[in-house]
């Protein structure tokens, strides 16, 4: 019974260590654009994808396009 318990604990530590290493350096950055008219969701998304390979969303009923992307290290 001790061997399966030790093996299970080892596997949990191994998986948690791998997940932690993968998530480091994955900080998200944000940039906002003010459009000339009401924000167009497709234009906003395309602009953010082209510039940073990120995602863009309009703030409802405003001229503001918000981009979210992985920060460069």
TrEMBL record:
GO terms for biological process: defense response to fungus; killing of cells of another organism. It holds the Pfam family SLR1-BP. Residues 1-25 form the signal peptide. Keywords: Antimicrobial, Disulfide bond, Fungicide, Plant defense, Signal. The lineage of its organism: Eukaryota, Viridiplantae, Streptophyta, Embryophyta, Tracheophyta. Belongs to the DEFL family. This is Uncharacterized protein.
